[in-house]
């Protein structure tokens, strides 16, 4: 009435009234007003309210006199009240399963039955827990038959009703779950409060659809939780008592929202192929449903209708923010598969302009491919963007899953490229190339280590600590590339055969890092000793440097182990079973991952360790090289005064430039390892597997470059190598 909002505050025993969009309500507190379940306001402002639970009546508050009169006697509460155009009063009594009517001209307030028998049932003349009611201009009675999950229509003067929507209706395109309210507008559109589905349904001349709360229960501005009643104001705006959220929600009427000529339809077409990713759509079964991930972008947050058109039976899912294939229940908003009984989905959902809206199109049946189109209709345009699904932050399936930690391993790079239970001959090209690269790197590393070992096993070169470091480095570089090869074949074989050894998972990657860091620090020790030699000059103590080198080589592995001991402690095998379908008890195969999970503190520590073992040796190499160049230049400038200091620096740089260039090259080659180790677990590895694979391989090339970096630039070392080769040749010949 006059666009004033009325509601009952049962706890405070008040009727609240908001006039002309006011923020603070006026309060009406009638005498003996207790536990009221419903009210009805007429055009002249009179308020009819339920007072039946304790006082057994319906009262009327007359607005112009502020007086109360009893207008109906009842045996229980009226869960719904309505006044028809002849001022006849209807009371819906949920506890008594009946609707009573009092004639307006009956001073004795004798009630007659308008619908129901008083016995709960689902027959045409029965009701079960009726709530909301509405009487149209023809005096036809519409009833929200709550516990029968249906809407009943009782024609004027008839006690046998017709189910027009819900359970038992010939129009079964939409199901109801405890409907609680019913309103008919001037255009004969029927609005239903579908209480336990937390939504509002509108039935028009040609269709029936959800219009409010279509994304499921919630407290957002576009969501509802256990709505109870619905009303209109004179402008067509909808007001809903949102009981689960303890609020009244207003939804503005848009004059052109029901005008199809103003609707914009957007389209998207694609093809599901065998190159698409697959996942488990129905539960803990085999991942054999092809799917496509589509982001829907809108400029204005509104309701939009989505439907598919395809020669294959399609299934549609709407997500917010992100989609995780191992657990499709995360972030799920709506789903549908057969809205129009043609094997195509139809979804009406609220798309937001400020968040990511994701549509997953998949198939009803597994291992099916084909073309499809998606259409979106609304007041604004919808743009579609296909997303190449990111590698998962969550691994596993809906029954058992686990979040991935930070960092990309070789297992992550190859996992989705290796085909299970398939011979190496039939593996993808990427896997075959990785096998070839691994073999080549191992052979190069073996040659590098043998030549380096033959060079530095010479006793003359081991009179300094530098020669001892390089001899040890020739061994650790071989151990590094050997462990790299073992790690690759461990991953390849275990993934091909769907097996994973917990010991290998915990030890191989850690041992690989131990040997790699050991080799890197040995190279740094060489640079540091060379700098000390330049600094001390003739006072350099060879014996002392040899003793120190032996101690460092002995202690260094323990120091490195102490910094990475957390890795095997946090490593484990994560496995989850895969079945043919959700209800099958037979396990088809078991998927296994070698995973590392760090807490935030341990992750920060691990990041610091990575930087120390990569940047530390580089800084030691670089500063030692610069010290050698500048220190030698200083000494020669003092002895050779005919040339200035700058000239000597240039001469020393030309002579020792490899000392600066070599550590810089080694750092550049090692950088991919640092980057890969710090990448988030959700990075799209499958989008560019070649890039990540070659970056991983390149990061281990420093371990096969000891000979090139240290032996090739030195005439002394090359001469010693030639002597060693001649000695071995003589031994073999004799």
Automatic annotation (TrEMBL):
<dbReference type="GO" id="GO:0043161">
    <property type="term" value="P:proteasome-mediated ubiquitin-dependent protein catabolic process"/>
</dbReference>
<dbReference type="GO" id="GO:0061630">
    <property type="term" value="F:ubiquitin protein ligase activity"/>
</dbReference>
<dbReference type="InterPro" id="IPR050952">
    <property type="entry name" value="TRIM-NHL_E3_ligases"/>
</dbReference>
<feature type="transmembrane region" description="Helical">
    <location>
        <begin position="468"/>
        <end position="491"/>
    </location>
</feature>
<feature type="transmembrane region" description="Helical">
    <location>
        <begin position="548"/>
        <end position="566"/>
    </location>
</feature>
<feature type="repeat" description="NHL">
    <location>
        <begin position="223"/>
        <end position="254"/>
    </location>
</feature>
<dbReference type="InterPro" id="IPR017452">
    <property type="entry name" value="GPCR_Rhodpsn_7TM"/>
</dbReference>
<dbReference type="Pfam" id="PF01436">
    <property type="entry name" value="NHL"/>
</dbReference>
<keyword id="KW-0472">Membrane</keyword>
<dbReference type="GO" id="GO:0008270">
    <property type="term" value="F:zinc ion binding"/>
</dbReference>
<feature type="transmembrane region" description="Helical">
    <location>
        <begin position="691"/>
        <end position="712"/>
    </location>
</feature>
<feature type="transmembrane region" description="Helical">
    <location>
        <begin position="608"/>
        <end position="630"/>
    </location>
</feature>
<dbReference type="GO" id="GO:0000209">
    <property type="term" value="P:protein polyubiquitination"/>
</dbReference>
<keyword id="KW-0812">Transmembrane</keyword>
<dbReference type="InterPro" id="IPR001258">
    <property type="entry name" value="NHL_repeat"/>
</dbReference>
<dbReference type="InterPro" id="IPR011042">
    <property type="entry name" value="6-blade_b-propeller_TolB-like"/>
</dbReference>
<feature type="transmembrane region" description="Helical">
    <location>
        <begin position="429"/>
        <end position="456"/>
    </location>
</feature>
<dbReference type="Pfam" id="PF00001">
    <property type="entry name" value="7tm_1"/>
</dbReference>
<protein>
    <recommendedName>
        <fullName>G-protein coupled receptors family 1 profile domain-containing protein</fullName>
    </recommendedName>
</protein>
<dbReference type="GO" id="GO:0016020">
    <property type="term" value="C:membrane"/>
</dbReference>
<keyword id="KW-0677">Repeat</keyword>
<feature type="domain" description="G-protein coupled receptors family 1 profile">
    <location>
        <begin position="447"/>
        <end position="710"/>
    </location>
</feature>
<dbReference type="GO" id="GO:0004930">
    <property type="term" value="F:G protein-coupled receptor activity"/>
</dbReference>
<feature type="transmembrane region" description="Helical">
    <location>
        <begin position="659"/>
        <end position="679"/>
    </location>
</feature>
<keyword id="KW-1133">Transmembrane helix</keyword>
<dbReference type="InterPro" id="IPR000276">
    <property type="entry name" value="GPCR_Rhodpsn"/>
</dbReference>
């Amino acid at each position: 009435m006059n666009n004033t909002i009325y509601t009952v505050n049962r706890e405070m025993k008040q009727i609240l009234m908001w006039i002309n969009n006011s923020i603070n309500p006026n309060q009406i507190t009638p005498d003996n007003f207790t536990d009221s379940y419903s009210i009805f306001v007429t055009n002249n402002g009179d308020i009819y309210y339920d007072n039946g639970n304790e006082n057994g009546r319906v009262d009327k508050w007359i607005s112009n006199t502020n007086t109360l009169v009893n207008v109906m006697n009842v045996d229980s509460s009226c869960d719904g009240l309505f006044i028809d155009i002849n001022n006849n009063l209807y009371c819906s009594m949920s506890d008594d399963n009946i609707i009573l009517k009092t004639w307006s001209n009956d001073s004795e307030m004798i009630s007659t039955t308008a619908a129901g028998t008083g016995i709960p049932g689902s027959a045409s003349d029965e009701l079960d827990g009726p709530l909301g009611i509405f009487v149209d201009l023809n005096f036809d009675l519409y009833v929200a038959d709550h516990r029968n999950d249906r809407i009943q229509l009782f024609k004027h003067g008839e006690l046998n009703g017709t189910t027009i929507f819900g359970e038992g209706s010939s129009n079964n395109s939409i199901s109801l779950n405890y409907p609680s309210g019913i309103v008919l507008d001037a255009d004969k559109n029927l609005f239903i409060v579908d209480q336990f589905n937390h939504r509002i349904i509108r039935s028009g001349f040609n269709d029936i659809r959800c219009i409010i709360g279509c994304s499921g229960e919630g407290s957002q501005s576009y969501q509802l939780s256990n709505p109870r009643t619905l009303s209109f104001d004179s402008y067509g705006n909808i007001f809903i008592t949102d009981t689960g959220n303890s609020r009244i929600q207003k939804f503005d009427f848009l004059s052109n929202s029901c005008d199809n000529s103003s609707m914009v339809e957007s389209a998207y077409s694609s093809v599901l192929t065998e190159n698409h990713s697959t996942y488990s759509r129905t539960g803990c079964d085999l991942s054999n449903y092809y799917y496509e991930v589509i982001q829907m972008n809108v400029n204005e947050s509104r309701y939009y209708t989505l439907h598919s058109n395809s020669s294959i039976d399609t299934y549609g899912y709407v997500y917010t923010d992100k989609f995780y294939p191992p657990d499709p229940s995360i972030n799920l908003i709506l789903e549908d598969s057969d809205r129009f009984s043609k094997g195509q989905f139809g979804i009406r959902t609220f798309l937001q302009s400020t968040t990511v809206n994701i549509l997953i199109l998949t198939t009803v049946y597994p291992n099916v491919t084909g073309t499809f189109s998606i259409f979106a209709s609304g007041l604004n345009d919808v743009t579609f963007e296909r997303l190449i699904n990111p590698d998962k932050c969550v691994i596993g399936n809906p029954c058992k899953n686990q979040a991935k930690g930070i960092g990309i391993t070789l297992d992550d790079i190859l996992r989705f490229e290796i085909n299970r239970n398939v011979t190496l001959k039939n593996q993808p090209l990427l896997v075959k190339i990785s096998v070839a690269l691994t073999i080549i790197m191992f052979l190069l590393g073996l040659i590098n280590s043998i030549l380096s070992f033959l060079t530095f096993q010479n006793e003359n070169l081991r009179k300094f600590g530098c020669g001892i470091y390089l001899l040890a480095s020739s061994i650790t570089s071989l151990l590094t590339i050997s462990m790299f090869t073992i790690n690759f074949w461990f991953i390849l074989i275990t993934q091909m055969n769907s097996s994973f050894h917990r010991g290998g998972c915990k030890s191989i990657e850690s041992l690989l890092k131990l040997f790699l860091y050991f080799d890197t620090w040995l190279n740094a020790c060489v640079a540091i000793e060379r700098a000390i030699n330049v600094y001390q000059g003739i006072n350099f103590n060879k014996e002392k440097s040899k003793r120190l080198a032996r101690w460092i080589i002995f202690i260094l592995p323990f120091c490195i182990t102490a910094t990475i001991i957390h890795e095997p402690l946090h490593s484990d095998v994560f496995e989850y079973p895969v079945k043919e379908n959700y209800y099958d008890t037979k396990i088809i195969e078991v998927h296994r991952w070698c995973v590392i999970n760090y807490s935030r503190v341990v992750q920060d520590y691990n990041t610091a360790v990575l930087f120390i073992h990569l940047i530390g040796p580089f800084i030691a190499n670089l500063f030692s090289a610069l010290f050698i160049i500048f220190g030698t230049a200083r000494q020669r400038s003092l002895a050779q005064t005919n040339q200035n200091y700058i000239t000597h620096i240039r001469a020393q740089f030309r002579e020792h430039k490899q000392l600066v260039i070599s550590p810089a090259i080694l750092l550049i080659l090692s950088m991919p390892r640092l980057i890969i180790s710090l990448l988030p677990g959700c990075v799209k590895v499958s989008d560019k597997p070649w890039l990540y694979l070659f970056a991983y391989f390149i990061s281990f090339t420093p371990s096969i470059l000891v000979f090139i970096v240290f032996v090739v630039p030195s005439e002394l070392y090359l001469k010693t190598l030639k002597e060693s080769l001649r000695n071995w040749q003589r031994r073999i010949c004799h």
